[in-house]
Specification:
Elements lengths: L4 E3 L12 E3 L4 E3 L6 E3 L3 H8 L4 H11 L3 E4 L4 E5 L4 H15 L10 E5 L5 E5 L5 E3 L6 H7 L43 H18 L13 H12 L23 H11 L5 H10 L6 H10 L5 H15 L3 H18 L7 H10 L5 H8 L9 H10 L1 H12 L4
Antiparallel strand pairs: 1-2, 3-4, 4-6, 5-6, 7-8, 8-9
Helix pairs in contact: 2-3, 7-9, 8-10, 9-11, 10-12, 11-14, 12-15
């Protein structure tokens, strides 16, 4: 029997909603103390959610107080006891809300990422935000011990086993159309898929912080606008670095100076606004832009501000050079602009480390080598001296993973 297709968010009453999944099916087997509920299409449902099928199965068990059985080889997912489909569908809605939907925009196009601090976050591909999962739920213990499999090497962490969020399931083997197709004139699953893809293509053009949306607009009008913005740059704020930055443009009208002034004058700007400004200036891939943001974007409340803007750094920091530039910006922020922040250097490093923006090896190399690239030698020593508690914590964490 073919499963019907429903919206991933069942509270959305829109037959053209982009994100779809098979309707969860159940089958009662056994009797007496051996009665159990088999979920025959759990793999298909999990694939549509981009989550391993073990996660919703274990979620059902924790919510129902029931034992679960998982046989991935034979594609069997079982919850002990007799549970009707309606109840399990309601629980699946809860799983989706807690472990799939973005906490900011409620879009299901997310990956689960386990940070180095063993905090589970939902990394949203639609709005760019990273929102924490409620670590009080019992399922989080299982996820920490069985993290999502990494499908590619990168800073953003692993992806769940299912590669595509919201992809409709394959048509039934017997040729029957899935529910939600014929009644509204959609026809077969193939026609429904084509319609969803067409709508998704249009939505991607308008969705803020989509992967494709992070690229700079290179149209003649956009280039002209950027040039005019540079030509009208105000004098005043310098974002100069140390003597080793001879390859960077320190002119008051450089894009880096313009960026530094803009973030200083727009403290209420969101992460989206900041990245759009970086794009407008055409420097979203430049390590110097990362350094300027680290120095100028934050205030003395930097520890509380990092979560607000971490999506920008996750997107822009793509290599060791970018990480070094970020650390350089932190040196200038604490060493020159806000000396009172020197004591909080360990907290600042921890925040970027747990967000998977800074790598352990880069931090350790930075912490043990004084440099005059961004600040004077004495300031560099003072900042690195303050970082020693965090560096020691990294060493101890290497010696014993439990710590």
């Amino acid at each position: 029997m073919a499963a019907g297709i429903v919206n991933i968010r069942r509270d959305v009453d829109d037959k053209f909603y982009r994100y779809r999944m098979p309707l969860l099916l159940t089958k009662i087997e056994g009797k007496g103390n051996g009665i159990k509920t088999v979920i025959p299409n759990m793999s298909d449902v999990a694939r549509a959610l981009s989550r391993p099928p073990t996660y919703p199965t274990k979620f059902f068990g924790s919510e129902l107080g029931a034992q679960t059985s998982v046989d991935e080889k034979n594609d069997r997912y079982i919850v002990n006891g007799a549970h009707d489909a309606t109840r399990l569908r309601e629980l699946l809605d809860g799983f989706i809300d807690k472990f799939v939907l973005c906490g900011a925009c409620k879009n299901p196009e997310t990956d689960l990422v386990l940070t180095k601090g063993e905090i589970i976050v939902r990394d949203c591909k639609a709005c760019g935000e990273r929102t924490n999962v409620d670590m009080r739920h019992k399922l989080t213990t299982y996820i920490v011990k069985n993290p999502p499999k990494k499908t590619k090497k990168g800073k953003k962490g692993g992806h769940a086993e299912a590669p595509t969020t919201g992809t409709p399931p394959e048509p039934a083997a017997d040729g029957e159309n899935a529910e939600g197709g014929g009644e509204d004139g959609a026809g077969s699953d193939d026609e429904l898929t084509r319609r969803i893809k067409a709508e998704a293509e249009q939505l991607n053009k308008d969705t803020t912080l989509e992967d494709e949306g992070w690229s700079a607009d290179t149209s003649p009008e956009a280039v002209k606008a950027r040039m005019e913005a540079l030509a009208q740059g105000m004098t005043g704020v310098s974002v100069g670095a140390g003597a080793d930055d001879e390859d960077e443009d320190e002119d008051a009208d450089s894009p880096y100076a313009v960026l530094g002034r803009w973030v200083a004058e727009n403290r209420s700007a969101s992460a989206v606004d900041v990245f759009k400004k970086v794009q407008e200036l055409g420097i979203e891939k430049k390590h110097k832009a990362v350094q300027v943001l680290a120095e100028r974007l934050f205030t003395e409340q930097v520890v509380n501000e990092i979560p607000k803007y971490q999506a920008v750094f996750v997107k822009m920091v793509s290599g060791e050079k970018h990480q070094k530039a970020l650390l350089g910006g932190i040196e200038k922020l604490a060493g020159y602009d806000h000396p009172e922040l020197v004591a909080t250097i360990p907290k600042i490093l921890m925040a970027f480390y747990q967000a998977d923006v800074l790598d352990e090896e880069v931090i350790q190399a930075w912490g043990t080598h004084v440099s005059k690239k961004y600040v004077d030698k004495e300031t560099s020593k003072r900042v690195r001296k303050a970082s020693e508690p965090f560096l020691k914590w990294l060493e101890e964490a290497d010696d014993g993973e439990d710590e």
